[in-house]
Amino acid sequence: MITNLAPFADTATGWQRALYAFLAEKEQRSGSRRTVEGYSRMLQDFFSRSGKEPDHVTAQDIFVYAHGPGLSGKQPSAITIGARIACLSSFYRFLIRMELIQSNPCDRLERPQVSPSPPRGLSAEQVHKLLAVIPNTPVGLRDRAIILTLVLTGRRRAEVLGMKAGDLSIEDERAYYTYRGKGGKRGRRELPGPALQAIRGALGAFRKELATMLPEESLWPSRSQQCKGLTSGTFYGNLQRYFRQAGMKPAGVHIFRHTAAKLRRDAGETVEDVSRFLDHSSLAVTTVYLRRLEGERDQGWAKVAQAIGV
Fold first, then answer.
1. β-pairing verdict for 174-180 and 186-190
2. Measured between alpha carbons, how far is 40 from 23 in angstroms, rounded to an integer?
3. Neighbour-count burial of 62, counting CB atoms closer than 10 A to its CB (0-12 exposed, 13-18 middle, 19+ buried)
4. Percent of the chain with pLDDT over 70
5. Can you say how many angstroms the Cα of residue 230 is from the centroid of all Cα atoms in its chain?
6. What is the CATH number of the domain that holds 40?
């Protein structure tokens, strides 16, 4: 559950309970333990530095923290500054809803302008190139199965790396998997045949079979972790090595979700199809997502060019 919290003085038990409640609500709504742990770290860091209780914090306190150097001593980027302010603002909005305070000191702060880098979805050729460098070893077979599952299902990193044997079921020669997505959304989808075949091959390399595995066993075995399976950090490290060996620019695991959306659009699926596939909350979210991947067409340049004679 939530990481250990000790941001306030021992006498401030009421505020500490409020912080626990905030993080519990955040975990329930986001469905992401990683998000909650990040919020917990930032809140503990801020309140330990300020030495103040929430109702005595000023906008200046938050400004100094948001723009101040981190543990590394480096000045924060615009993204980090924005994340710090967003975290504290979210906590204060919660306190207002709980009627513990009346105002949000973050409202007086201007957040830095951030130009997000566009998502990069891999092409089919690039995916093929990446898979070609993965060795035919137990670890390689496992990593290949993970990448195929990510690309073919479009699920998020935590949803795939957290898959267990009990999440799979075989019915009428078809495989299905259950998952808990963002915001606690639960679903059940068909597992594409190539992904199932790759998973079985990887498990066989570790001398395991789906039929005899315990429900709580990870689908991604690791000799060092046994039943717990592969860690996210280990897979990320392996992935960076594969990118380098393939002569490709390194990227995070989330690139495979972008790739899944891109390849489905390339295959002729509609925006509505892709939206359902990604479990997006609305078509507007998917439209922006795809526009950033594909690039927005400029319908007016030809008339302007004609007007200026070029």
1. antiparallel
2. 7
3. buried
4. 82
5. 17
6. 1.10.150.130
Which pair of tokens denotes residue 171?
Answer: 């019915």
| Residues whose CB falls within 8 Å of the CB of residue 84, separated by 6 or more in sequence, listed in order | 42, 46, 62, 65, 66, 76
Read off the pLDDT of residues 154-171 as tens digits, 9 standing for 90 and up: 999 989 999 999 999 988
Task: Give the predicted TM-score (pTM) of the model.
Answer: 0.64
Ordered strands of the 186-190 beta sheet: 168-171, 174-180, 186-190
Question: Do 93 and 178 belong together in one domain?
Answer: no
pLDDT tens column, 283-294: 776 776 676 665
pLDDT for 114-126, tens place per residue? 665 555 789 999 9
30/98 same-domain check: yes
Task: Please report, for residues 74, 80, 120, 293, the alpha-carbon distance to residue 117 in angstroms, rounded to integers and kept in the order given.
Answer: 22, 15, 9, 11
Distance in angstroms (rounded) separating the CA atoms of residues 286 and 119: 13
Amino acid in position 27: E
Phi, psi (degrees; rounded to nearest 5) at 190: -75, 135
For residue 84, the enclosing domain spans 13-108
Residue 63, pLDDT score: 96
- The pLDDT of residue 282 is 72
Categorize the per-residue pLDDT at 303 as very low, low, confident or very high, splitting at 50, 70 and 90: low
Same-domain check for residues 259 and 142: yes
- Give long-range contacts, CB 8 A cutoff, 24+ apart: 57-65: 57/105, 58/105, 59/105, 59/106, 59/107, 59/108, 59/109, 61/105, 62/88, 62/105, 62/106, 62/109, 63/109
2 DSSP 8-state letter: P
For residues 48 and 91, membership in a common domain is answered with yes
**What is the predicted pLDDT for the residue at 308?**
36
